[in-house]
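Quick one, tokens below. Sequence please?
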């Protein structure tokens, strides 16, 4: 019998890193640094930026045949769908701007998602050059500093730059996701740190978005040739669903509440109406008590507890 050639070597399974995500397909970088578009085998694409995947070449594109086990995965769960941000992160920069006014609910929810995924967040407040708006919003972060989160002041305004060396030290040799609402300056930071990628970013957003520069897809950028560190740009979020979290888990994911949960009378206290609840007794404005819980934060806890206790509507 005539020997048939086995399927060509190009069908061999190779490893690659997902550096871009566009709906159903992803952009993958192979160990040689070449990139190609890869598609999922089935209808759904589960691979996200930061994933190491196994793929097989099919013509000049590729088919995803597996995802290597992840160290972590940051995602939000809205009522109808899961939205993954990125995988295998070392840290998250929660990026806010002095304008537009940031929502504390959004910030609080994003922090909970980071805690649930066990990823360290740093809160960055950008646009320090807008001094009045900045001062007011910097003060809004007092509560978050008190509960142990690091905050960093930044300005990317050409004539008033501030905080860039701190950011550079923070992200050096790490994989960092830049996450935050639209207009905070996430892409501006990337363009400032990596001037070479600027044209690329604008090209993509112009093609997809008729000239607007709002980011529509998540993209991985190596910080330098050594390829030890990377910074990931992501589209601004509006909703931040926490449906993947149990109501009874919430307090442990909010550091200001978690501080007190161990001292409640009942081990399964939900901190809403039980007697001798240490969380409720810590709620107050008093500034001499460093361990107090801001009333607004406790109010958010009650709202979120209620929301996550509802049976799913789908
Ligand atoms: N005054 C001031 N404006 C800034 C600063 N950084 C960014 N901006 C401006 O803020 C606007 C939004 O910046 P982007 O970088 O597109 O914001 P983004 O967070 O990437 O927004 P999305 O892609 O929509 O999520 C732009 O007009 C920037 O020029 C800053 O430090 N100071
Ligand atoms: Mg952007
Ligand atoms: Zn309690």
């Amino acid at each position: 019998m005539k020997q048939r050639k086995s399927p060509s070597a190009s069908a061999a399974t190779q490893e690659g890193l997902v550096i871009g995500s566009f709906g159903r397909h992803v952009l993958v970088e192979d160990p040689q640094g070449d990139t190609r578009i890869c598609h999922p085998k089935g209808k759904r694409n589960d691979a996200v930026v930061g994933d190491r995947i196994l793929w097989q070449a099919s013509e000049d594109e590729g088919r995803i045949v597996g995802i290597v086990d992840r160290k972590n995965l940051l995602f939000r769960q809205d009522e109808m769908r899961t939205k993954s941000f990125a995988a295998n992160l070392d840290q998250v920069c929660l990026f806010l701007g002095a304008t537009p006014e940031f929502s504390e609910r959004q910030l609080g929810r994003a922090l909970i998602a980071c805690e649930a995924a066990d990823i360290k967040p740093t809160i960055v407040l950008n646009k320090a050059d807008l001094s009045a708006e900045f001062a007011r919003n910097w003060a809004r972060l007092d509560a978050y500093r008190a509960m142990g989160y690091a905050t960093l002041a930044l300005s990317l305004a050409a004539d008033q730059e501030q905080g860039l060396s701190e950011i550079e030290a923070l992200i050096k040799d790490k994989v960092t996701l830049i996450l935050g609402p639209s207009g905070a300056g996430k892409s501006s930071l990337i363009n400032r740190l990596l001037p070479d990628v600027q044209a690329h970013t604008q090209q993509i957003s112009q093609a997809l978005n008729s000239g607007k520069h709002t980011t529509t897809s998540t993209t991985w950028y190596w910080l330098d040739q050594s390829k030890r560190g990377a910074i990931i740009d992501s589209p601004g979020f509006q909703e931040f669903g926490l449906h993947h979290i149990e109501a009874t888990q919430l307090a442990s994911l909010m550091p200001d509440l978690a501080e007190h949960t161990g001292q409640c009378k009942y081990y399964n206290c939900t901190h809403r109406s039980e007697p001798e609840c240490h969380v409720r007794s810590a709620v107050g404005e008093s500034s001499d008590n460093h361990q107090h819980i801001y009333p607004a934060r406790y109010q958010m806890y009650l709202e979120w507890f209620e929301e996550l206790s509802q049976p799913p509507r789908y």
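The domain at 73-233 is CATH 3.40.50.300 (Rossmann fold). The chain has three domains: 10-67, 73-233, 247-309.
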